[in-house]
UniProtKB/TrEMBL annotation:
Oxygenase that can act as both a histone lysine demethylase and a ribosomal histidine hydroxylase. Its EC number is 1.14.11.-. The lineage of its organism: Eukaryota, Viridiplantae, Chlorophyta, core chlorophytes, Chlorophyceae. This is Bifunctional lysine-specific demethylase and histidyl-hydroxylase. It is an enzyme of class 1 (oxidoreductase). It is found in: Nucleus. GO terms for molecular function: histone H3K36 demethylase activity; histone H3K4 demethylase activity; iron ion binding. It comes from Chlamydomonas eustigma. Keywords: Dioxygenase, Iron, Metal-binding, Nucleus, Oxidoreductase, Transcription, Transcription regulation. The keyword Ion transport does not apply.
């Protein structure tokens, strides 16, 4: 289903949002001061500036939700409309919004929570429930609002971490949930009406928690450390662990919660690093735990540790000695691991970081168009220059060639979120987690104010609050190359050989590992004048001119680079005496971009002129050089087809 083109145009945000979204939200408080004095330390209220008020006012509200509900029902009527030639529109779900999947609703009467019996979040049901005092929580409204998409995309780019968003639409004089704390960093952005917030210091031992809390009784949390009423344009930052509760004032309230840094701690990274080392021995050279941690547990280990051993130790039976010995042995092993990290930081650390990066690339939202420069025309000459289309948007990962006969050894995969889904961002869960939650969605998922802050990370669902994250753990070893919470779980096409599962769980073209240094140089350069392709030949004498041009063309075709055409009138070059100037002339049709680089390694170009090579590349890629810059291939193109997302399954 194509995106609805009738949606009203939203006001463009301040330019500062694109390069410093945290500074934009915290203005007029200096962003550097915010990072040193408040980040992970204490709440901060940033009053609305004119720019923030202009951007946030009615960015999302009850009318917005009703409009989305109407449009989702109307989409089937537009299914027969054909897209304009060459125009790329991402598929969007059709059918009604559903409670528990797209919208949560709840109200609290006399301390008891009520959730609606209706399954369909239609305009009529939403209106009736809201009038009865139900709070509406809209999961990931960046799926519907371009302005929120812009904000979330900018924050993910700036922080280098996944960012989720929920909208909360609360009737006047109602409170959606009891006091609680969350396991995410939160920015609360008021978009309509006013809301009074009471904040409390974290409970002892629960500073920067890695799990959300249950509902907390008033007598446990003490006196508030901040009592503030948010107005439209105001932003409130809450470090994870900050206990909070809120009540909508006269006229009702709508606010957004932007949440991040879930499972994104040194502890999570250490867990990934240890698992990477366990799995890496024998597969990745030098990646292994120290011998102290590879030794077996002692005989009878379980009998000397745990609750029974602790009770026996208190009775003086001597079992305490075994537990103490085990602790000392493990501590020695961890110290050996710490020594190994410091002595060989280039081995274990990058492998774990790559796992975190793969999770981020797999699950982040596709960049907002305002944050992604146009591609320009295709590179047609070694006198052209290319630049990467953005920092942090691309990564090079190894592939499991030896375990997959279809993937030759010595190849790497180029990955990017440029073709990720906007409409499934933070909305997918793993099969295991879906099974874990099956049967209790009414109890755990249907919440109102500050609901769904913690979802589907492979451990018990504790409490629903502010975050609404639905993605795999950062670099989690539970991924095993699968799309836990990602956008590509069901999107791979059996006929798209370069997007098949090669152990990375990431879509993208393959390229010979010998090209990786060239690719890294190109993608790391993100500003003009860029890198001239001819200089790439000089830097990599093992690559011919034809190979460099073919590589640049494939990077352009897959959306990785932008071309800066040569200013010279002479576009062509020759690679042998008598060769004519070459210029790619392409026709529309199916593209085979992802095989272009791969096939390049299978044949020699020594006997061909650049004109021959570029003509063959153009015929293989079949993309019109006359089409408007930034436009994509047709949906028959494997490069596009692999990124199209299937509809979400049953209620999760």
């Amino acid at each position: 289903m194509v995106a609805n083109k009738s949606k009203k145009q939203e006001k463009p945000p301040s330019p500062s949002l694109g390069f410093d979204p945290i500074g934009f939200l915290m203005d007029p408080f200096p962003s550097t001061k915010f990072e040193t004095e408040h980040w992970e330390k204490s709440p901060l209220h940033a009053r609305g500036t004119e720019e923030k008020k202009s951007f946030l006012t009615n960015l999302f509200n009850l009318d917005s939700l009703k409009e989305v509900a109407r449009e989702r029902l109307m989409k089937k009527e537009d299914e027969g409309d054909e897209e304009e030639e060459g125009e790329e529109e991402e598929e969007e779900e059709d059918g009604p919004l559903l409670f528990g999947q797209d919208v949560n609703a709840a109200r609290y009467l006399n301390g008891s929570k009520e959730v609606p019996e209706e399954e369909e979040a239609s305009e009529e049901n939403i209106t009736a429930l809201f009038q009865k005092g139900y709070t509406m929580q809209v999961l990931q409204p960046q799926r519907y609002s371009d302005g929120i998409w812009h904000l979330v995309s900018a924050m993910e780019k700036h922080l280098g971490c996944l960012v989720g968003c929920n909208a909360y639409i609360t009737p006047a004089k109602t409170q959606g949930l009891a006091p609680h704390h969350d396991d995410v960093e939160l920015w609360i952005c008021q978009t309509q009406g006013t809301k009074r917030w009471k904040l409390y210091a974290p409970l002892a031992g629960f500073e920067l928690p890695n799990k959300p809390s249950q509902d907390l009784p008033q007598e446990m949390i003490g006196e508030p450390i901040m009592d503030i009423t948010l107005k439209v344009g105001d932003v409130l930052y809450l470090p994870r662990g900050t206990i909070h509760q809120a009540v909508a004032q006269e006229g009702g309230s709508t606010h957004l919660t932007l949440s991040t840094y879930q499972n994104w701690t040194w502890g999570n990274f250490a867990s990934t690093l240890i698992h990477t080392a366990l799995e890496g021995q024998g597969e990745v050279e030098g990646v292994a735990l120290p011998i102290e941690l590879r030794k077996s547990l002692p005989k009878g280990f379980l009998g000397s540790t745990g609750l029974q051993a602790e009770i026996q130790g208190r009775t003086g039976s001597g079992c305490k000695v075994g537990s103490r010995t085990a602790a000392a042995t493990l501590a020695a092993g961890l110290r050996a691991l710490a020594d190994q990290l410091e002595e060989e930081e280039e081995v274990l650390l990058p492998a774990a970081a790559d796992a975190f990066a793969a999770d981020f690339i797999r699950n982040r939202i596709r960049p907002h168009p305002a944050l992604l420069p146009d591609q320009g025309p295709p590179p047609m000459s070694l006198d052209d220059s290319v630049i990467g289309r953005g920092e942090g948007l691309f990564m090079i990962v190894p592939v499991d060639g030896p375990d997959d006969p279809t993937v030759p050894e010595g190849f790497v995969k180029l990955c990017t979120p440029v073709m990720n889904s906007r409409y499934y961002h933070m909305m997918r869960v793993s099969d295991a987690d879906a099974e874990e939650d099956e049967g209790n969605s009414d109890e755990d998922d249907d919440h109102g104010e500050d609901a769904s802050h913690h979802h589907h990370h492979g451990h018990d669902h504790v409490h629903d609050g502010c975050c609404g994250h639905k993605h795999s753990k950062g670099g989690s070893h539970d991924n095993k190359g699968e799309d836990e919470g990602g956008e590509h779980e069901d999107s791979e096409d059996e006929d798209d050989e370069d997007d098949e599962d090669d152990g990375t769980g990431l879509p993208g073209p393959l390229t010979p590992a010998s090209y990786a240094p060239l690719v890294a140089d190109i993608l790391s350069c993100t500003s003009a004048p860029g890198i001239k392709l001819r200089s790439m030949v000089e830097k990599a004498p093992h690559c011919s001119e034809e190979e460099v041009l073919r590589l640049a063309f494939s990077l352009w075709r897959n959306g990785f680079v932008r071309t800066i055409p040569a200013t010279s009138k002479t576009k062509g070059i020759s690679t042998s005496k008598g060769a004519q100037d070459s210029k790619i002339k392409c026709k529309g049709g199916k593209g085979e971009a992802q095989t272009a680089v791969k096939e390049d390694s299978k044949q020699s170009h020594k006997s061909k002129t650049l004109k021959d090579v570029t003509r063959e590349t153009a015929e293989a890629l079949k993309v019109s050089v006359d089409k408007e810059p930034g436009k994509r291939a047709s949906t028959d193109d494997p490069a596009v087809k692999g990124s199209k997302k299937s509809k979400r399954g049953a209620k999760q």
